[in-house]
Amino acid sequence: MHFLANLFRTFHLVFLVLNVASVAGITKAAAVQTHFGPMCDLSNDNVSLWLPSDINTRGGRPLLEPTAPHPSLVILAVGVQNYTCLDNGTYFSFGAIMELFDISCIPQSARASFTTFVSELWAAAPANTTGWDLVGASGVLLHSFALGQHYWVADPLAPASGALNPMWDFRSTSLPRVADPQTAYLVGYRTGIVPAPTDPARDAEWVTLAPLVVDGQPDGLLADQVFRLNTNGGMPPTNSCVPGSPEIHVKSTLNFWMYGGAWATPS
Length: 267
Ligand SMILES: *[C@@H]1O[C@H](CO)[C@@H](O)[C@H](O)[C@H]1NC(C)=O
Ligand SMILES: *[C@@H]1O[C@H](CO)[C@@H](O)[C@H](O)[C@H]1NC(C)=O
Ligand SMILES: *[C@@H]1O[C@H](CO)[C@@H](O)[C@H](O)[C@H]1NC(C)=O
Ligand SMILES: *[C@@H]1O[C@H](CO)[C@@H](O)[C@H](O)[C@H]1NC(C)=O
Hints:
Blueprint: H1 2-18, H2 23-27, H3 47-50, E1 73-85, E2 91-102, H4 108-124, H5 131-141, E3 146-154, E4 164-169, E5 185-194, E6 206-211, E7 213-214, E8 217-218, E9 225-233, E10 248-259
Antiparallel strand pairs: 1-2, 1-10, 2-3, 3-4, 4-5, 5-6, 6-9, 7-8, 9-10
């Protein structure tokens, strides 16, 4: 678990440099919380200033505008994206398992380079360290920063179709003991998807997502909107695959910016 030890040290360094005094306060949070904000103030963050101005000009479906002036949470995700091989020899995105960490204390201008730095640590981790190893160990090691997991679930609107939807799930961490479990998760669907700006063959697409609506209600109240950006890795190999070959897991390190929802920063 050298990778996790290094990640843990990295977080502590960041927090020492930023002199964040509030970390201890967060772990002493009340037994039942109805609301939970980021570790550091995000009211100066503006995703529109961060996105390249030509982000929506290289194909795909345009990213949407943020639904709130400032994000309610900014997350580092570390894990794998899964691919299966279709009968026609092309890779098909089939879920992911990623561990989620609060990086609101890292200034907006430093988040991309921090994320790339973590992706280099993750790339250097032993080949047999899986996304699930990370999930199992980091909740204990990094409890001040660990938020929960990102994975994919059967589409609640068509459970038998084989279609999957992304889930952000904070219910497993000891950190947020929320009264209403619906405030601690979100099942989403894509509203926009564009190629990653610098290395689209290697880095997963940048995406906007909205809550999936099931029986007239959003499936989870964690956020009203999610951006996926600052992606490092995650795309499948560019060559064709052999139909019937086993699922592959591609390492991926990226950011989610969440807007609105139950965890919005009090303004
Ligand atoms: C964010 O930046 C964009 C682009 O400069 C600007 O139009 C917008 O007003 C800013 N939003 C906030 C909430 O400051
Ligand atoms: C392979 O099959 C999938 C699913 O039917 C389809 O979406 C994709 O366009 C196909 N790719 C090629 C190169 O034929
Ligand atoms: C993706 O890969 C992980 C192993 O790294 C596995 O646990 C998970 O079930 C896979 N499938 C989906 C749909 O996420
Ligand atoms: C991973 O590989 C290393 C060395 O090759 C080995 O010592 C270790 O037990 C393996 N871990 C797992 C979880 O398989």
